[in-house]
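User: Modeling request: complex.
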Amino acid sequence: MFGAQRPVELQGARGPAEIPLEGLIPHSMNQQTRSHESSETEIVTTAKGAVAISSFSSPQQIHRYRFDEQFGSHAQYKSIYTKRQTLEKIAAKNGTRVVLALGPQETIIGFGVLDFPEPHERWYQLGPGVMIELKAIEVSRSWRANRLAGRIVAHLMRHPRIEEMIAYLVGYSWTWDLDGTGLSAQQYRRMLIDLFTPHGFSEYQTNEPNICLRPENLFMGRIGSRVPEHLRQQFKWLRFGISPDGPPG
Amino acid sequence: MRYPKECVLKDCNEAVLRPLGPEDRELLAEFYSHIPVEDRWCMRYDATKPDVLERWFKAMQDGFVDSIVALCEDRIIGHGSLHFRTFGVTQHVGRFRIVVLPEFRMKRLGTWLLLDLIQLAMDKGLEKLRCDLVVGIEDAAIDAVYKFDFIKAAVLKDYVKDVEGNHHDMVIMIKHLHKGWSDF
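Assistant: Request completed. Predicted assembly structure:
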């Protein structure tokens, strides 16, 4: 792959046009929540079988699972997280969150990642731990259209500090699996907005250069209810690369 | 598209983008009354005339024009419009026009309006965007559209005349709105 400044993946789920899972199976079997080794696991029944959506995934937990072979290289698309070790490394960091969708035989068929921006990134400038990036969501091609991405996002948003942080996501169109979904970039963009909006994300304008490279690129944010006003204001300025105290960027 | 959208200008002023609505007629008339005649000259219609605004709002109602406005403290400071046809050989082509109050120029407001119009055009499934700009008068706009990957499709030498009767070239700028990425 070339052209990608940042390896962000946002893909997998279909939009609201899907047949609701609730209509296919008894509600009692649809979603159950239980505790599991300091993690929170939800069992989602799909047409292809039961899937466990597991939050608070520790590196040790992740270690015993294997990646679905669909996370790899395709004709016009390459999964960026193709190694389980990458997820383990992120899960080992303090305050991050990895959510896994686990299919039969302890196979990772989907994942979502919340991770902090690197110090050199624009979004770090509000201070450590203030902004957190929804860095990736991916569902294996063969498990898509089962509404798993929405469940993964819901679990990511259960981060214990989510209301104290500004969560954000960046969608670069060159990382999207247009070939696998059959969608145009603009349709894919709309699908992402539909996926994240119910979880409190809004589309925001920004002049961040990588995002501005293509008009269909997407920046969304979710400002936690306990984020103080001064940080909200700073976030606004940061999006446009300006500072009231300094020269315009 | 989700509106209203908030944007911060280069001088830290804030503006809100939203679609132009039928209730905005007076605000829009007020806006165009502050646009200098040399800028209005580059448009094909005199937007200070009530019948021109009437036609615009009718075209919006009939689905031939989408308009967005930028507001700052309840007054319109910028207006972007996307014009398209629903029949014929150019129904896949949109044209646009962006007008910004003089005191809000060179602060990236035009860029935000342009970005929104491009997304609007893509949402509508248009394949190309076209704008005709006057060299020597609309150079800032020419530079802005270049940065959004518009290409100079044609130059009409000495095609237009300014208010004082001087001839200027007109450039036809085109942007292809791709639906995906190439297989290269």
